[in-house]
C-alpha cells in the first residue's frame, strides 16, 4: 500500500480497494461491511417478514472541482449519489443526513444555490433531508465545499411514502447474486459525468455539448423491480466506471461477464473527448446511470421499464453473465465479500462518486500473499468485451487516476 | 481543443471492412507460412500501436503464424531510471514547480516517484501541453516552472516551439528537462541486435507525421527489413499488417505509407525546422537498449539557458535498477510481457515494478489490461 495516501487511493479503482481491504476492513471488519455492496443492510428489532424489518444505510462524501459544473452541482451530486447507493440495495431511500465542510471565503450565494439544488434533488427523489452538521475550515484547507450525505432506506416503508417509490415489501439485493445466463442492462449513455467534469475543470472547450448525467435513480429502480421482480442486483457505475462495476459484480458473484462493445450507448461528443484525452470510456465516471443484472426471461421487461423511465431513455442490453471456465478464480471466494466504506474521492478527483464498495478477492489471505486485483495465472479474466470485429479483450478495473497521455 | 469527427473515425473502424482485411491477412499468412515454415515476427514500434492492437483484441483473431512483438515506442518506458531520478531530484529544488504529462506521474525511480513526491508536498502539475507550462510560468512569476520533456519526435517540436515562445516573450522562470528520444537510431540499434528476431516493422504513425518515411529507408536498404507506416484505428493497423505480409511474400524490402491522410514522404517541414532550430541530436541512454549514438536531443547552445539541469544542477541519488525487472528485454522485443517472472505476480498496474507496467502505452500494462487470459 505504500507509506502515504496518494490521490490514486481515491479514484475508485484497484488502489482504493487495497486501502479499503487492507486498512478499513482490518480496522472495522463488521459482517455488514464485509458484504461488499453499495449499501449496508441492517437487521432491526422490528422484524416483520424476511426483509421487512431491515433497513439500508449508505454514506458518501463528495469533493468535486468545480462545484458547479455543466448539468449539475455538488449538491445535486451529494443527494443523488447516496439515494442511488441506497436504491441499489433494493431498499426505498427515505431519509438523508447532510454534513458540510465549508472553506472560509466560500460565497454564501454559492452555498445557497447548492442547498436549493439539494432540496430540489431530494424532492425529486422523494427523500427528506432530516439532520445535518456544518464545519468551517480555514481558507486554503478545502476546495470551497465538501459534502457528506448518509442515506437510510427501508424495505417495507410505511404508508405515506408513496412518492419515494414505495410498492410494498422489497427484497434485499446483493451483487453476489448474479448467475450464468443473466443479462446485463445499462440505463443509458456512458461517461457523460466524467467528461463534463474534466472538460469544465481543464477548460477543454467542449463543455457546451456534454452535461453531467447526475440524477436520482430510485424511481427507475422501482420501475424495474415492478416489471422484473427477480432482478438480481443494481449497481451505479460511478468512479472507476462500468469497468470497475462489472469487475466488482463478477468477483462478488464468481461469474464471468461478457459485454458487447457495440451495444454500449455513448454520446458521440463523449466518445470524441475520450479519443482526445486517451481515456477508456469504460473507466469514466457516471452519476446518473444504473447497471442491472436480470434473469434472461425478465430482461425485456426490465429494459422496457428503464426506457419508460425519465432517466433511462437510452437504456440498452449490453451483455450477459457466464460461468467461469475452470471453476472459481484462484484466491477469490464469494463469501469473503467486502463493503460500503465511504472513502472520499480525491480532491479535484473525478467528481466525487459513490461509496467505495468493492468486490472480493482473497487478498493477502486466500491469495497466498499476492496483491493482484484478481488472479491472473491459470484463470480466465472475469470481464471481457466482444468487439465489432469478432475479437475479444479483457475489461479491467481502473488503476490509480485516469491521466491524460503523452501523445 | 477541437473535437474529433467521430463519423470520420468510425469509417476507420468499419466492422465489415475489418473482417475483410482479416480474411486477406489470413490468406496471405497461410501462403507465407507454406514457404517459410515458421511464424513471421512483426514489431509494432510505437506504444500507441501496442495499445490500439490490444484494445481491438486482434491477437484473438490474427493467424497463429503472425506474431506481433511490442517495440521500444513507449516514451515513458524508454526513459532511463537515471533520467527519472533527475526529474524527481528537480522536485526537491526549492521554488521549483514541475510540470509534466500525466503518464510520468506514477513511474517509479530509484527510491521515489512523482506521485509520491506530490503526496509529500512537492509542487507538481499535470498538463496537456508544454504551452500550458509556459502560461503557468507567466501566471506564477514567483515560481520556477520546469517542464518534463519526455517523448519522441512527435512531442519534441511542441517543446521547441514553447522554448522559442519563451524567448520571444522573455519568460525567464521557465525551463525544460530534455529527455526526448529519436526513433530511427533506436531502430538501427534494434536491427543490429542479433538477439532480436524481426521480419518486418509496423512503423509509428505519429512520429512519421513529423519525420516522414525517408529516415527509415536504411532498414529496407541495409537490413532487408520492410516497414509500413500506419495509423492507429483498427483498419489502419490491419491494413499495415496486410501490406507487410504482401511485402514479405514478394520478398521485397521497402518502406511504405499506409497512413497517407497524415504522413507525407518528407514529413512536416515546419515541425522539422523548429526541431532543427532549437535542438541538436546527441547520444542518449534508453532503458533496455542502453546508450545509443545520436538517439536523443539536447538544446542548442543559444537555448542552453532553458536547460533545467544546467539551471538547477540538482543532486541526483545513485541509480538503483528495480530488482528482477525485465522491462529492458521487453522493450527490445526479446521477451514477451507474460514471460517476465514478475508479470502479474509482483508487478501489476497498482504496484508497478518497471515502467512498462506504469504507462498506459507500456506493453506490460496493455498486456495485463487487455490480453491476459
Give a brief outline of the structure.
Chain A is α+β, with helices and mostly antiparallel strands and 407 residues long.
Describe the fold and architecture.
The complex is a heterodimer of chains A (407) and B (373). Chain A has a single domain (7-394), classed as Phosphoribosyl-aminoimidazole Synthetase, Chain A, domain 2. Chain A contains 9 helices and 16 strands. Chain A has helices at residues 14-27, 74-88, 108-125, 192-201, 218-227, 241-253, 268-277, 296-308, 363-366; strands at 40-43, 54-62, 68-69, 72-73, 92-103, 128-137, 145-154, 183-186, 233-235, 256-260, 291-294, 316-322, 340-341, 356-357, 383-386, 392-394. Chain B has helices at 6-11, 15-36, 47-56, 75-78, 81-90, 114-119, 130-139, 156-169, 183-192, 205-211, 217-223, 234-250, 269-278, 308-312, 327-332, 363-371; strands at 40-46, 66-73, 96-100, 124-126, 144-149, 174-178, 200-203, 227-229, 255-257, 279-286, 290-299. In chain B, the strands form 3 sheets. In chain B, strands 2-1-7-8-9 form a 5-stranded parallel beta sheet. In chain B, strands 4-3-5-6 form a 4-stranded parallel beta sheet. Chain B starts with 5 loop residues before the first helix and ends with a helix. Classes of the chains: A alpha+beta (407), B alpha/beta (373).
Amino acid at each position: 500500500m505504500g507509506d502515504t495516501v496518494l490521490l490514486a487511493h481515491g479514484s475508485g479503482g484497484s488502489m482504493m480497494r487495497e486501502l479499503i481491504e487492507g486498512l478499513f476492513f482490518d480496522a472495522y471488519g463488521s459482517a455488514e461491511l464485509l458484504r461488499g455492496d453499495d449499501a449496508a443492510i441492517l437487521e432491526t428489532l422490528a422484524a416483520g417478514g424476511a426483509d421487512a424489518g431491515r433497513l439500508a444505510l449508505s454514506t458518501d462524501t463528495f469533493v468535486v472541482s468545480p462545484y458547479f459544473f455543466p448539468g449539475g452541482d455538488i449538491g445535486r451530486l451529494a443527494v443523488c449519489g447516496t439515494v442511488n447507493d441506497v436504491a441499489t440495495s433494493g431498499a426505498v431511500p427515505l431519509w438523508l443526513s447532510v454534513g458540510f465542510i465549508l472553506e472560509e471565503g466560500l460565497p454564501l450565494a454559492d452555498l445557497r444555490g447548492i442547498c436549493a439544488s439539494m432540496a430540489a434533488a431530494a424532492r425529486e427523489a422523494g427523500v427528506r433531508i432530516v439532520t445535518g452538521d456544518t464545519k468551517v475550515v480555514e481558507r486554503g484547507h478545502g476546495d470551497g465545499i465538501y459534502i457528506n450525505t448518509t442515506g437510510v432506506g427501508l424495505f417495507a416503508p410505511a404508508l405515506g411514502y408513496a412518492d419515494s417509490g414505495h410498492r410494498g415489501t422489497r427484497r434485499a439485493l446483493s451483487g453476489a447474486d448474479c448467475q450464468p445466463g443473466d443479462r446485463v442492462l445499462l440505463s443509458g449513455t456512458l461517461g457523460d459525468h466524467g467528461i463534463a467534469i474534466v472538460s469544465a475543470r481543464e477548460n477543454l472547450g467542449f463543455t457546451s455539448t456534454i452535461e453531467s448525467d447526475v440524477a436520482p435513480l430510485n424511481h427507475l429502480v422501482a420501475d424495474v423491480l415492478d416489471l422484473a421482480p427477480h432482478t438480481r442486483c443494481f449497481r451505479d457505475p460511478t468512479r472507476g466506471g462500468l469497468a470497475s462495476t462489472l469487475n466488482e459484480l463478477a468477483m462478488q458473484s464468481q461469474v464471468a461477464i461478457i459485454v458487447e462493445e457495440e451495444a454500449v450507448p455513448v454520446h458521440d461528443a463523449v466518445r470524441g473527448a475520450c479519443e482526445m484525452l486517451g481515456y477508456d470510456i469504460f473507466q469514466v465516471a457516471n452519476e446518473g446511470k444504473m447497471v442491472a443484472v436480470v434473469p434472461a426471461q425478465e430482461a425485456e421487461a426490465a429494459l422496457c421499464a428503464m426506457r419508460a423511465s425519465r432517466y433511462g431513455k437510452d437504456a440498452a442490453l449490453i451483455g450477459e453473465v457466464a460461468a467461469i471456465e475452470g471453476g472459481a478464480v484462484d484466491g477469490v471466494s464469494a463469501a469473503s465479500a467486502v463493503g460500503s466504506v465511504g472513502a472520499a474521492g480525491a480532491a479535484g478527483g473525478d467528481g466525487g462518486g459513490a461509496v467505495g464498495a468493492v468486490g472480493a478477492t482473497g487478498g493477502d489471505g486466500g491469495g497466498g500473499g499476492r496483491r493482484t486485483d484478481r488472479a491472473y495465472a491459470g484463470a480466465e479474466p472475469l470481464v471481457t468485451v466482444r468487439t465489432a470485429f469478432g475479437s475479444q479483450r479483457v475489461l479491467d478495473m481502473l488503476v490509480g487516476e485516469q491521466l491524460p497521455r503523452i501523445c | 481543443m477541437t473535437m474529433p469527427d467521430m463519423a470520420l473515425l468510425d469509417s476507420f473502424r468499419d466492422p465489415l471492412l475489418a473482417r475483410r482485411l482479416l480474411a486477406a491477412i489470413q490468406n496471405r499468412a497461410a501462403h507465407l507460412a507454406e514457404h517459410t515454415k515458421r511464424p513471421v515476427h512483426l514489431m509494432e514500434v510505437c506504444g500507441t500501436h501496442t495499445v490500439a492492437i490490444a484494445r481491438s483484441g486482434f491477437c484473438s483473431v490474427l493467424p497463429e503464424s503472425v506474431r506481433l512483438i511490442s517495440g521500444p515506442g513507449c516514451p515513458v518506458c524508454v526513459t532511463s531510471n537515471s533520467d527519472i531520478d533527475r526529474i524527481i531530484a528537480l522536485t526537491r529544488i526549492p521554488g521549483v514547480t514541475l510540470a509534466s504529462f500525466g503518464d510520468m506521474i506514477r513511474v517509479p525511480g530509484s527510491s521515489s516517484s512523482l506521485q509520491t513526491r506530490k503526496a509529500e508536498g512537492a509542487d507538481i502539475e499535470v498538463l496537456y501541453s508544454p504551452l500550458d507550462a509556459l502560461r503557468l510560468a507567466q501566471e506564477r512569476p514567483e515560481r520556477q516552472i520546469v517542464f518534463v520533456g519526455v517523448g519522441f519526435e512527435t512531442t519534441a517540436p511542441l517543446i521547441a516551439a514553447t522554448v522559442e515562445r519563451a524567448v520571444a516573450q522573455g519568460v525567464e522562470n521557465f525551463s525544460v528537462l530534455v529527455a526526448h528520444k529519436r526513433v530511427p537510431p533506436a531502430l538501427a540499434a534494434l536491427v543490429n541486435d542479433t538477439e532480436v528476431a524481426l521480419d518486418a516493422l509496423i512503423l509509428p504513425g505519429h512520429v512519421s507525421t513529423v519525420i516522414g518515411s525517408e529516415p527509415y529507408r536504411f532498414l529496407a536498404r541495409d537490413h532487408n527489413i520492410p516497414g509500413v507506416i500506419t495509423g492507429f484505428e483498427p483498419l489502419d493497423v490491419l491494413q499495415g499488417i496486410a501490406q507487410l505480409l504482401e511485402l514479405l511474400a514478394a520478398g521485397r524490402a521497402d518502406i511504405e505509407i499506409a497512413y497517407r491522410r497524415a504522413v507525407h514522404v518528407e514529413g512536416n517541414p515546419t515541425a522539422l525546422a523548429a526541431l532543427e532550430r532549437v535542438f541538436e541530436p546527441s547520444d542518449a541512454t534508453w532503458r533496455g537498449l542502453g546508450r545509443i549514438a545520436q538517439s536523443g536531443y539536447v538544446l542548442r547552445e543559444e537555448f542552453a539557458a532553458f536547460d533545467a539541469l544546467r539551471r538547477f544542477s540538482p543532486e541526483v541519488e545513485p541509480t538503483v535498477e528495480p530488482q528482477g525487472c525485465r522491462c529492458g528485454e521487453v522493450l527490445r522485443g526479446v521477451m514477451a510481457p507474460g514471460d517476465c517472472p514478475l508479470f502479474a505476480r509482483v508487478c501489476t498496474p497498482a504496484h508497478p515494478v518497471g515502467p512498462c507496467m506504469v504507462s498506459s502505452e507500456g506493453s506490460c500494462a496493455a498486456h495485463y489490461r487487455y490480453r491476459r487470459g
